[in-house]
């Protein structure tokens, strides 16, 4: 659907011409090409470029790049946020982070969410999308409902599940009613269970996104391919495996990227749900950073953790660019 | 966290009607220099709920009325946001409020060292005398940098009816008796003790009490300054906690139990009679009532069935057996604040305002002259224990400051979770001390 | 708006009908409906619990956590709907989200235009700089950003939320706008040239209207991101609850009225509804935006 949509929304050049300037323009008249226009004056061109990109660049540099740069700067100091910033300690904060088992545990938790998302969310979402990829009454409604949690804020999602998961709360009652009372657990209090609980809530909120993205990808797969395969006697599963899944591979990669970046930066939901507890068992890098930076006033150390968080995101992004966006870059190269 | 007065008072909304009456009080001292140029005072406090919110607003209004040149701008901020984010950043940025929440102890010392606090020793000498020993946590190196408005000690709150049901006939005075009580309650199918370990500090307070009994007064008080935790008594405190945890005295799922939020919190379990005991500070009676009021449950049953006893004695420790842990809330003036800030602080801690704080808000005041305004039987007993204590040790997390305090609390909860040892607590505290 | 609806309908018609293998009883359809309904149930039950819980009393909730309202009580919702704080927070959320959206759309489209349609040195660098912004979660910069906003006197002001949000939302906006603007045929520019329009005039009078579909997409994404934001409003809009946005309000309400579960449920569901309503209208845009964003 997405591919279709993108091309569908692009205005037809002919339409634009007629709608925009038909009465005044004679299409056959040869005009200056954009290249000639550009040659008319580099000064003017740069003026225009600055005019257009200037405001955005300014806001971006001041409110994104500068604070991140400052975080990097603070990360070389032992600083409690109160006293003067004069205790330069080089890379000690970074050494300390990787030597701290609690930080490594937080890192592992992020990895857990990444890996589990790929191992659980991906197959489930793909299966649901493949099954739902057909016409039936109520399909739009179903799709909308499945996607709905994505639109809820992480805070609201966490508050919602906090209330549901509390001991002797509704979940326990539902399980009791279903005869599963024996499986009742301390969902948020059990050290070994809490990350699974967090992962479940994360999945509840975000799996709809995967399903919807995959469905959008699937609707872009040419119908005749599938029909031809069906006529050739291919089974439903063969069609999925040979045609649909390979053709939506780009969409799957897109989702994987979103999922990995989201998992690395996981904060709001864990913070409201568990505050990283019990006993640090559900800390993510971001909650760990918040605990040190804001709660323990170790702004220098917290900043170092923030920088590590940034680099992990960056690595994920670079890998994504190398493996997924390459096609786009090649196109650009050719055009030049 | 000792500033839990925020939540503490959440339930006592009824009292606010009395407030209107006392607001007319004419006891405000008139300021001789009232003809001064206009001054604006900013005041940050954690009373973002009634009745404290209205109470402080009234106090500010009274002060403004008596000092027409003063305008007070109040910002009431949620406790954790205020303590952990707003104040540190405001101080760092050099644009701090004039009067702000102060918990004393190590945090205050750090702020003094950074040159952020106004020395009140001489300006408020009379008030410091009037308030007496309670001011100690707000002083540093023999100078006073803030005044408290509430202070109390902690002990175990319990439901006598559940003790009775389990056949316990007296308040446990020793750890052995407490363990016996725990076993008796468990045998009767009652959750013995609720603890809100989700919030870390309520669990950590068990360790504090063991440390208080195990460490000599000198060692404990010196540790607040030297930040040296090498005395074996600190590890022993953790071992005593481990021993106590071995009898499994706490509620199911205590790691995810919050202290004060709703019926499933530790306070909620005590309030609804689902647990028999809770170790908690002087504010607890208001938390318990507040929860019941929110749940729509009559508080009379609780009021008729709530007891308090001091933390039981341990054996073999070097600590003063009558010592108690306590803490309170107060305010400090920013170093560059106008002189009127100290006057406002004096008014806040005046006997009259303190009495109304007890009567209207239901808090435990600091001023000795306001003590008679406290009527709740448990609070009266608690005040007596505090009065007879060999010494009152400020909550250890406040004593050591935010950084070590948070590390310590987290490490203690790891003992509760079964993934940390008594030695780990001391190690983490030592490491945090090295990194500040 | 109507254009969007039309388009959505159009897509609905175009939607691929994957009904192959239609001999006899359609097990595939049965499976699809079963799977779909299960997914709907898993999604809806927690949301319904919150919505219905608001029609119960806290006593009812304590007695039977999973039950239905019996009797239905309306005062929890009424209390929220008649509290000025809730409406203040709603208004704040709307102001912040609208401000962020307008700012992002304007600045983002302006910045994307030369990147998409000019040829100049540093163009690639510029694009990469903006793209890298996608990797900065606001949490990384929270503390220095806070200090910066204080220096600008923006703490406690909605601008202190709007401006940084615009900044942090720029990358995804530019990433979505660039290919869209790039795909517009050259002839459009040439025609404008012949009409004597300057590049600036062209941008305002021709490009912006043409870019409407992409603008709606980035606008919706910015609006949703702002509506759900937590950390930045937490740092900037402190103090008086009447100055909070809804997510902040919900979280603080949850701690403040922690014992009154029914009230929390009512508050949460009312805070949830605008987002859900907005979403039902804009679902397609959001999906497109998200796919478009990362495909570049």
Produce the secondary structure layout.
The complex is a heterotrimer of chains A (336), B (436) and C (296).
Chain A: H1 2-9, H2 13-21, H3 34-39, H4 42-74, H5 92-99, H6 101-132, H7 139-151, H8 154-165, H9 170-177, H10 194-219, H11 223-231, H12 236-247, H13 249-264, H14 268-273, H15 285-295, H16 299-323, H17 326-335
Chain B: H1 5-8, H2 16-22, E1 39-45, H3 52-66, E2 70-76, H4 79-93, E3 99-102, H5 105-113, H6 125-131, E4 139-140, E5 143-144, E6 147-153, E7 155-158, H7 160-165, H8 175-187, E8 191-193, H9 201-214, H10 217-226, H11 232-246, H12 266-271, E9 275-280, H13 284-295, H14 300-304, E10 307-310, E11 324-333, H15 340-348, H16 351-361, H17 377-388, E12 392-394, H18 396-400, H19 402-416, H20 422-434
Parallel strand pairs in B: 1-2, 1-3, 8-9, 11-12
Antiparallel strand pairs in B: 3-11, 4-5, 6-11, 7-9, 7-10
Helix pairs in contact in B: 9-11, 9-19, 11-20, 19-20
Chain C: H1 2-14, H2 27-53, H3 58-63, H4 75-81, H5 84-117, H6 123-132, H7 142-151, H8 159-183, H9 186-194, H10 199-210, H11 212-228, H12 231-236, H13 246-256, H14 261-295
Helix pairs in contact in C: 2-14, 4-14, 5-8, 5-11, 6-8, 8-11, 8-14, 11-14, 13-14
Structure description:
The complex is a heterotrimer of chains A (336), B (436) and C (296). Chain A has 336 residues and is mainly α. Chain A has 17 helices and no strands. Chain A has helices at residues 2-9, 13-21, 34-39, 42-74, 92-99, 101-132, 139-151, 154-165, 170-177, 194-219, 223-231, 236-247, 249-264, 268-273, 285-295, 299-323, 326-335. In chain A, helix 7 crosses helix 10 (194-219) and helix 15 (285-295) packs antiparallel against helix 16 (299-323). Chain A is globular and about 75 Å long. Chain A starts with a helix and ends with a helix. Chain B folds into two domains: 5-152 and 326-386, D-Maltodextrin-Binding Protein, domain 2, CATH 3.40.190; 155-324 and 393-434, D-Maltodextrin-Binding Protein, domain 2, CATH 3.40.190. Chain B contains 20 helices and twelve strands. Chain B has helices at 5-8, 16-22, 52-66, 79-93, 105-113, 125-131, 160-165, 175-187, 201-214, 217-226, 232-246, 266-271, 284-295, 300-304, 340-348, 351-361, 377-388, 396-400, 402-416, 422-434; strands at 39-45, 70-76, 99-102, 139-140, 143-144, 147-153, 155-158, 191-193, 275-280, 307-310, 324-333, 392-394. In chain B, strands 1, 2, 3, 6, 11 and 12 form a six-stranded mixed sheet that branches. Chain C has one domain: MetI-like (MetI-like fold, Orthogonal Bundle). In chain C, helix 13 (246-256) packs antiparallel against helix 14 (261-295). The radius of gyration of chain C is 23 Å and the shape is globular. In chain C, 52% of the residues are buried. The model of chain C is unreliable at 1-22 (pLDDT under 50). Chains A and C meet through helix 1, helix 2, helix 3, helix 4 and helix 6 of A and helix 1, helix 2, helix 5, helix 6 and helix 7 of C.
């Amino acid at each position: 659907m997405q591919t279709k949509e993108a091309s569908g929304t692009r205005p037809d050049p002919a339409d634009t011409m007629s709608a925009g300037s038909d009465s005044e323009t004679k299409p056959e008249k040869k005009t200056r090409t954009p290249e000639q226009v550009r040659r008319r004056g580099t000064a003017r061109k740069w003026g225009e470029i600055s005019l257009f990109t200037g405001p955005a660049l300014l806001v971006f540099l001041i409110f994104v790049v500068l604070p991140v740069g400052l975080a990097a700067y603070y990360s070389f100091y032992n600083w409690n946020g109160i006293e003067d910033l004069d205790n330069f300690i080089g890379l000690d904060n970074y050494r300390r982070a990787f030597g701290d088992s609690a930080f490594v545990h937080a890192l592992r938790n992020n990895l857990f969410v990444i890996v589990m998302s790929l191992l659980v969310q991906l197959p489930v979402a793909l299966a649901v999308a493949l099954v739902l990829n057909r016409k039936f009454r109520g399909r739009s409604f179903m799709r909308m409902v499945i996607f709905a949690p994505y639109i809820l804020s992480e805070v609201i999602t966490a508050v919602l599940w906090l209330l549901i998961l509390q001991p002797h709360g509704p979940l326990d009652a539902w399980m009791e009613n279903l005869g599963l009372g024996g499986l009742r657990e301390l969902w948020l209090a059990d050290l070994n269970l809490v990350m699974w609980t967090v992962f479940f809530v994360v999945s509840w909120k975000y799996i709809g996104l995967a399903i919807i993205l995959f469905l959008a990808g699937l609707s872009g797969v040419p119908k005749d391919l599938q029909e031809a395969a069906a006529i050739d006697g291919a089974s439903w599963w063969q069609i999925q495996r040979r045609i649909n899944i390979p053709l939506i591979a780009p969409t799957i990669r897109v989702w994987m990227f979103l999922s990995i970046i989201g998992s690395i930066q996981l904060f709001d939901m864990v913070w409201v749900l568990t505050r990283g507890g019990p006993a640090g068992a559900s800390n993510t890098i971001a909650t760990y950073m918040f605990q040190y930076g804001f709660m323990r006033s170790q702004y220098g150390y917290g900043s170092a953790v923030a920088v590590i968080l940034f680099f992990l995101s960056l690595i994920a992004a670079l890998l994504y660019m190398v493996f997924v966006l390459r096609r786009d870059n090649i196109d650009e190269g050719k055009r030049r | 966290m000792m500033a839990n007065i925020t939540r503490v008072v959440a339930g006592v909304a009824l009292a606010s009607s009395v407030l209107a009456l006392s607001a007319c009080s004419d006891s405000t001292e008139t300021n001789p220099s009232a003809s001064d140029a206009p001054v604006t005072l900013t005041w940050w406090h954690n009373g973002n709920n009634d009745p404290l919110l209205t109470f402080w607003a009234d106090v500010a209004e009274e002060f403004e009325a008596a000092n027409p040149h003063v305008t007070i701008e109040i910002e009431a901020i949620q406790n954790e946001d205020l303590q952990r984010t707003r104040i540190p950043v405001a101080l760092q940025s050099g644009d701090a409020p004039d009067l702000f929440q102060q918990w004393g102890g190590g945090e205050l010392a750090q702020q003094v060292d950074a040159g952020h606090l106004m020395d009140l020793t001489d300006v408020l000498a009379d008030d410091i005398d009037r308030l007496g020993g309670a001011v100690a946590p707000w002083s540093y190196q023999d100078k006073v940098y803030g005044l408290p408005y509430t202070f109390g000690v902690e002990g175990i709150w319990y439901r006598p009816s559940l003790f009775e049901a389990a056949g316990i006939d007296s308040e446990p005075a020793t750890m052995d008796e407490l363990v016996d009580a725990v076993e008796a309650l468990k045998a009767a199918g009652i959750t013995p003790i609720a603890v809100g370990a989700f919030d870390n500090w309520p669990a950590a307070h068990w360790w504090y009490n063991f440390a208080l009994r195990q460490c000599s007064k000198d060692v404990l008080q010196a540790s607040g300054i030297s930040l040296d935790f090498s005395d074996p008594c600190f590890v022993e405190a953790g071992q005593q906690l481990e021993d106590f945890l071995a009898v499994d005295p706490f509620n199911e799922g205590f790691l995810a139990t919050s202290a004060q939020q709703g019926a499933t919190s530790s306070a909620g379990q005590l309030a609804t009679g689902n647990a028999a005991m809770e170790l908690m500070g002087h504010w607890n009676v208001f938390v318990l009532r507040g929860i019941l009021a929110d749940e729509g449950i009559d508080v009379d049953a609780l009021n008729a069935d709530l007891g308090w006893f001091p933390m039981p004695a341990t054996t073999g420790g070097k600590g003063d057996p009558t010592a108690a842990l306590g803490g309170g809330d107060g305010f400090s003036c920013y170093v560059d604040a106008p002189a009127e800030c100290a006057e406002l602080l004096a008014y806040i801690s005046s006997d009259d305002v303190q009495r109304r704080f007890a009567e209207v808000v239901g808090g435990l005041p600091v001023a000795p002259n306001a003590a008679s305004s406290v009527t709740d039987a448990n609070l009266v007993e608690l005040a007596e224990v505090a009065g007879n204590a060999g010494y009152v040790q400020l909550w250890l997390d406040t004593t050591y400051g935010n950084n070590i305090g948070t590390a310590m609390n987290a490490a203690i909860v790891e003992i509760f979770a079964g993934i940390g040892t008594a030695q780990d607590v001391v190690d983490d505290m030592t490491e945090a001390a090295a990194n500040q | 708006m109507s254009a969007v609806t039309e388009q959505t309908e159009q897509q609905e018609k175009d939607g691929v009908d994957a009904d192959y293998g239609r001999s006899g009883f359609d097990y595939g359809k049965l499976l699809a409906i079963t799977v779909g309904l299960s997914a709907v149930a898993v999604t809806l039950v927690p949301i319904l619990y919150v919505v219905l819980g608001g029609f119960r009393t806290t006593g009812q909730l304590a007695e039977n956590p999973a039950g239905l309202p019996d009797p239905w009580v309306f005062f929890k919702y009424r209390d929220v709907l008649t509290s000025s704080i809730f409406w203040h927070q709603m208004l704040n959320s709307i102001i912040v989200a609208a401000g962020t959206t307008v700012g992002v759309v304007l600045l983002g489209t302006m910045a994307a235009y030369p990147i998409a349609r000019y040829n100049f040195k540093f163009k690639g660098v510029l694009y990469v700089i903006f793209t890298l912004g996608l990797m900065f979660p606001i949490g990384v910069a929270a503390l220095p950003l806070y200090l910066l906003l204080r220096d600008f006197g923006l703490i406690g002001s909605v601008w202190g939320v709007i401006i940084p949000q615009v900044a942090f939302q720029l990358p995804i906006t530019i990433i979505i706008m660039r290919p869209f603007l790039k795909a517009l045929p050259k002839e459009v520019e040439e025609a404008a040239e012949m009409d004597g329009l300057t590049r600036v005039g062209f941008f305002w009078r021709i490009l912006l209207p043409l870019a409407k579909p992409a603008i709606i997409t980035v606008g919706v994404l910015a609006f949703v991101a702002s509506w759900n934001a937590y950390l930045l409003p937490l740092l900037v809009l402190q103090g008086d609850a009447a100055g909070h946005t809804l997510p902040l309000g919900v979280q603080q309400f949850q701690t403040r009225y922690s014992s009154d579960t029914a009230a929390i449920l009512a508050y949460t569901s009312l805070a949830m509804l605008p987002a859900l309503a907005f979403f039902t209208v804009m679902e397609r845009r959001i999906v497109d935006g998200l796919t478009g964003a990362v495909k570049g």
